[in-house]
User: What shape does this take?
Amino acid sequence: MIPIAKPWIGDAEKQAVLDVLESGMLVQGPRVKALEERFAEVCGTRYAVATSSGTTALHVALLAHGIGPGDEVITTSFTFIATVSSILFTGAKPVFVDIEEETFNLNPALIEEAITPRTRAIIPVHLYGHPCDMDAILDIARRRDLVVVEDAAQAIGARYKGRPVGGFGTGCFSLYATKNVMSGEGGMITTNDEEFADKCRMLRSHGSRRRYYYEFLGYNLRMSDLHAAIGLTQIGRLDEFTARRRANAAYFNERITSVIIPIVRDGCEHVWHQYTVRVTDGRDRDAAVRQLNEAGVGTGVFYPVPLHQQGYIREIVGRVSLPVTEQMAREVISLPVHPQLTEADLEKIVDEVNRL
Ligand SMILES: Cc1ncc(COP(=O)(O)O)c(C=O)c1O
Assistant: This one.
């Protein structure tokens, strides 16, 4: 089976972990600091703060913005659970806005009507690695005095009008094993605000600036140097990994004819965390998934049930209708696009998809 994702674990990753083990210093230390510096460079921000996961990066970022009970946060329902669970952890309420069919991302034209006096923040998710329409989102945020927390978990290196994602508002990234740059588990917050970065650092480590002196209630959400060592080897190859993903996506774009292929909007530089096609015209997506899997092509469905339709979330937000989100959840299939695909893999994927 050609896997839908395959973490790149080469000699450099193995050696980096061994070096940390041999140093005897396993917890957050110099490698975490070095990874933070590299992330800030990639995102064009002054600061980056590493956390234990993308989920905790979002949680810490929202807390550091002072978001909590009584507040509302606007976001998409067509995303991974962590976008919304991080809102819920703070005590705030998610408010869902429908997406654009073309990009699968938050539709800015629908945001203003969802704003209430309780709205504090917008979380645009750069889904699959395609940047959101940031000009429109930032314009609304400025006019309505809202915080923007970008969920860039899937989008490291993506650019909107030449600027890297994660540098428009507060950026949150995941370094989970299947991400474009991974550390096994890990997260990162990017920002230009020194005070905010400091608050994030304290929240991730017991509300403490100085060991055994605690200023407010904090967590242990640190990244270990073992994880950072892997992340450092990976981020050094970001451009190469992204170029391979782009070449794979271009190969598919030229050859896949049986389903709707993804687009890249003008001004956007996609990093193809996922290459996601749509099975339309009443055809059965789940049957297509079975057919591909039986032929040896791994697939992913991100995401089969949108978050506003998940039982416990529906109890919190009530019944919401998001027609485009619901349609995309029925139609999408992600194909393998990762950097380790061979020419033979690419040919096979195209052949099998064109047989659908
Ligand atoms: C859009 C999105 N947000 C948040 C996360 C959470 O990241 P993590 O799994 O590192 O906690 C992920 C990835 O898993 C994601 O894809």
Notes: Residues 52 and 223 are 5 Å apart (CA to CA).
